[in-house]
Each structure stands twice: as structure tokens, then as C-alpha cells.
Amino acid sequence: MTAFRRSPRSVRALVPAAVAAALLAGCAQGAGGAASATDSTPRSGGSSTAAPASPGTASPGGSVTVTPAPADSAVAGAPTPGTLLVGDFGSDTVTFVDPARGATGSVKVGTAPYGLVVGEDGRAWVATAEGVAVVDTATRQRLALVPYRTDTGPVTTGEYRGGGMGIVLSPDGRRVYVGVNVPGGNGALEVVDTAALRVTDAVEVGRRPFDVDVSRNGAEVYATNHDSFDVTVVAADTLRTRRVEVAPYGTEGGLGSWLKPHYAAVRPTDGKLLLPFEGERLAVVDPRTGRTTIEPMTANTHQHGVTVTADGTLFTVGTGPIDPAEDRGPSLTVRTPAGAERVYPLEGAHESVAVPRDGRTAYVTGGFTRDGYWDGLTVVDLASGDTRRLAAGSRPLGIAVL
């Protein structure tokens, strides 16, 4: 058994009064707490329920108007393989990025887009504060905005805004699952029929569902809930739920704790969930039994976004230190299935990561959910360790390789 150092993180879950205000402006704060002006100020037009419908939109509970695509949309303007799509949390758009040349165009999708996923048919599904936007990546137009069934209050921006966060497609492409944040309470997992373009089901999950993943056979969906220290396991056929607590540092500090789950990845070999914490501990969760085992990590930095490749290699984004006196700066950890790690230092905070099929490069978004974000991507050459920055939209969070 590996001996872990006793980290001061466990006591820093409750912070001294002198620094509490600064820390609670960031990731530690849970839904319902004090927020910045942008977190609580509705966008022009007020709540989504009051805003008039426009082409491709609908009020919650209403029907969706679909904008017809050109007849030759399957080939017109099709993105070059390897093009990146990023969600611009700061400008309500998604941006297409050529890894060699930078941004090549953007599409308005809805307020404060968070996660996104792209299907084999070329449609992108984007979790915004207003609903799930559907984008044709060939014609570069928004086809629809599917409103949520869950009441999330006024449409706002900022880290604690209501609306969609994590999002994933079912393996057969027939359903989209989106985690919907409800400020001040538990969130919901909503199910979108990808043919009908409407929400067909919703079930309660934990607080602030940062990430949503699906088992390889599509039988289970996993909502990683930041502010309730847990993963909600949802049966895809019945929507029955089970709560699995994931708190390798304990739950001391509650909503004020920094030591909470953010993102997960489903390990291809056995279907277990991989959740990194602080560059120190990897929680390996068996969703069938609810049991968690802990493996050591080496980056020693606050960690957010993850992805896993087909061979089981885990990529984890380190956003930077909780305590600069003790923790290391931003990084990208690449962890082999055997547990060996290589840590690539990064400049500035980052949020999410995507890796093309050739596995030679990693693309890391600089948007970040807290202050310190920047407008671009870091391109990491995984063989040499060389990095370069690439302009890519405004505060990019979600990312996919087309």
C-alpha cells in the first residue's frame, strides 16, 4: 500500500478569515453562496422564461424551432479533420480553431456555454445557460436551442450560473445527457432526444454537476457533482439513481471546501470512474459497488478537466496552486494505465483537455471557471514537451476534436 503524505489540504478546507473572502470568490464556493456581480446579474431580457422566442430557440417547456440547413450541408464548409471546437464561456459562442492557424470563425449558441460534445454526424451539442444548443459543424450554424425542463432561474453568467454544465452523448447517438445546475439546490440530469430535439426526461442529481459521462454500453450515466462530494449513478432505462460519495479528503468545510470532485473519465478497460484530486490522489470508483480506491498522483496542483484515450491513458489539467507556498503551478498530467506519470508545466490557468486519435498532441483550454483565465489554448507536443499558445475565442472551457 502506498503511504500518502499528510497534506495540509485537509485542514485548509476551512480557511482563515483573512483569506476567506478571496478564496470564496473561486472554485471553493458552492451554489447559493455569495457571487460576483456577473454571477447574479440577468442578461438583457431577464430570465429565459420571459424572453421571446427566436429562430432555433424556445422558452422552457415550449417547442423548438429548427433552422433548416442548406441541402448540401453535408459537404459545404466541412471542417478539416483535426479542427478544434471550443465553447466560449465569455462570449456566448463556439469557435472553430485550426491547430496551425488559430481561430477560423465562431457561431452564437447561447449564454455562457460550458461543456460540449460532438457526434459522428457532425452535430455539436453545447450546454449553455439557456438550453442545449445544436450546431451543424459543416455549415457552421446553430440549428436549434433546446430549452431545459428544470427551472434554473434568471439567465446569468459567471461560475455559479444556472443551466447546463457537463454533457455527453449516448453511444448510439440517440440521446444527450446534460447536467443542469440549479443555484442554491440540487441539480438535474436531463435527457434530450437527438431526433425530436426536446427534453424527454429529467432526474435529480447532486449539486453543480460539473461533468457527465456514460458507460461504454450506454446502460449508466454518471453525473459528477462538485458541491455535494459525489457522483450520481443513473440507470439509463429507468432513471433510478444511486449516490456514491467521492471525498478522498473528507467533506470538512462543506461548500467552502476546495477538495471536491470536478471531472471524471470512464476507464475503457473496466468501466471504473477516474477522478483526480489535487495532483495527489486519484479516486478510482467502481460504479457497480460504490467502492473507491485511491492511487497516488504527482503533480501537486488543483485539478479540473480530464479525458482518457482508447488505450486507457489519462490526461488531467492542473489549474494551479491552492496555496502557492506549498503547491505547484498549472500543468498537464499524462498518466499511463500502469500509473506512470509525466507532468508538463503550463503557463497560466487552464480548464479542459482534448487529444486527437493519433495521441501526439494535447489541446488545453485556458478558459478556467475561476479568475485567472485567458483567451486561448495551449498546444502540448507530448513527445518533446514543447508548448505553444494559440488564440481561440473568449474564455474557452469545453473542447472537442472534429
Structure description:
The chain has 402 residues and is mostly beta strands. Helix content is 4%, strand content 38%. The chain is built from 3 helices and 28 strands. The strands form 7 sheets. It has a 4-stranded antiparallel beta sheet with strand order 3-2-1-28, with no helix packed on it. The longest helix is centred in the first third of the chain and has 7 residues. The protein starts with 8 loop residues before the first helix and ends with a strand.
Can you describe this structure in just a few lines?
The chain is mainly beta.
Features:
single chain, 402 residues, mainly beta, four-stranded antiparallel beta sheet, 38% strand, globular, disordered N terminus
What structural class results from the helix and strand content?
A: mainly beta
The helical percent reads under 10%
Number of strands: 28
Q: How confident overall, as mean pLDDT? A: 86
Radius of gyration: 20 Å
Q: Uncertain spans, ≥5 residues at pLDDT below 50?
A: 1-8, 10-26, 30-63, 65-76
Distance between the termini: 41 Å
What general outline do the C-alpha atoms trace? globular
Major pleated sheet:
4 strands, antiparallel
Placed side by side, the strands forming the largest sheet appear as: 3-2-1-28
What fraction of the residues are assigned to beta strands by DSSP? Answer: 35-45%
How many DSSP H or I helices?
A: 3
Task: Summarize the topology.
Elements: H1 9-12, H2 17-23, H3 37-40, E1 84-88, E2 93-98, E3 102-108, E4 116-118, E5 123-127, E6 131-136, E7 141-147, E8 163-169, E9 175-181, E10 188-193, E11 198-204, E12 209-214, E13 220-225, E14 230-235, E15 241-245, E16 265-266, E17 273-277, E18 281-285, E19 292-296, E20 302-308, E21 314-320, E22 331-335, E23 341-345, E24 353-354, E25 361-365, E26 376-381, E27 387-391, E28 396-401
Antiparallel strand pairs: 1-2, 1-28, 2-3, 4-5, 5-6, 6-7, 8-9, 9-10, 10-11, 12-13, 13-14, 14-15, 16-17, 17-18, 18-19, 20-21, 21-22, 22-23, 24-25, 25-26, 26-27
